[in-house]
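User: I'm putting together a teaching handout on how multi-component assemblies are represented. Below are the sequence lines for each component of a complex, exactly as they appear in our records. Could you produce the 3D structure of the whole assembly as structure tokens, so the students can see both representations side by side? Please keep the chain order the same as the input.
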Amino acid sequence: MKISINGNVKQFDYEKLTISALVMTLNLTGKRLAIEKNGEIVPRSQFAEVNLQDGDKLEIVGAVGGG
Amino acid sequence: MSEQLIIAGNSYHSRLLVGTGKYKDFAETRAAIDASGAQIVTVAIRRTNIGQTAGEPSLLEFLPPEEFTYLPNTAGCYSADDAVRTLRLARELLDGHKLVKLEVLGDPKTLYPNVIETIAAAKTLVKDGFDVMVYTSDDPIIAKQLEDIGCCAVMPLASLIGSGMGILNPWNLQIIIENAKIPVLVDAGVGCAGDAAIAMELGCDGVLMNTAIAAANNPVMMAGAMKKAIEAGRESYLAGRMPKKLYSASPSSPTSGLITAA
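Assistant: Of course. Below is the structure of the complete assembly, with chains in the same order as your input.
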């Protein structure tokens, strides 16, 4: 399946992929993040349950230095 | 000083709020913030770098959210919709944290606030349960409208973001301060400790700054200077300055008992 992450399309060769699994695949486990799927925020508590589908668009954000 | 800054029901002993951008590295960020004594620190919300290595340090490791009050901002947002979306993500990121800094910009050259979009975003965010500290122009009418909407602090600019030009319109700031029943903080434009002290002497409840510290030759020393300036300015304001006596001197030493020529 193809998923757009922060504006870049990535190919994943899995039939089923939860957000938790994706986070692990991206080496982001343990990082403090917030994720929006197709414009809707997915609460962290639901990462393990929400399955991704071909064509989904994700925004993955974190806190950085700023004024 | 026992008197505290109260924002959205929480008390803070420091009246200096600082940004976390533009530092050389996270260690310098941390050292400067420690020297500033700030309890509230602003952060930006940005796309996570997907290619990053697993062990790469993050800002949160240097500034643990348990130690500081985070103030996520909407820097870089040019519409109410983008600002609201950013802060909803911030709330999720920070476990339901409600205190936020709203700024909606109007123009990438001046970063001047777009007050129409700012007002629209403030209405949505207040309705949505956020405690909104709002960056705005030094227009007293807009500042009052933002208060009436339910913002918990109004933060007029001293001058353009990152310009270091200091306080350009103390008269407008004074009108805003006189009219406001919520804290007024000068946000943006402070360049040196003197500017910060003047803001506090005008009667501001606090000052928010980033570049004035981060872009100093010695950011950690400047952070300490800012801490003292904010405290000195506040005490000077509370102490009440002497009235200005134009064109009329008044000696500090006794006028009697002078020796006279023999």
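A couple of points students might notice: The CA atoms of residues 32 and 65 of chain A lie 14 Å apart. The two ends of chain A are 38 Å apart (CA to CA).
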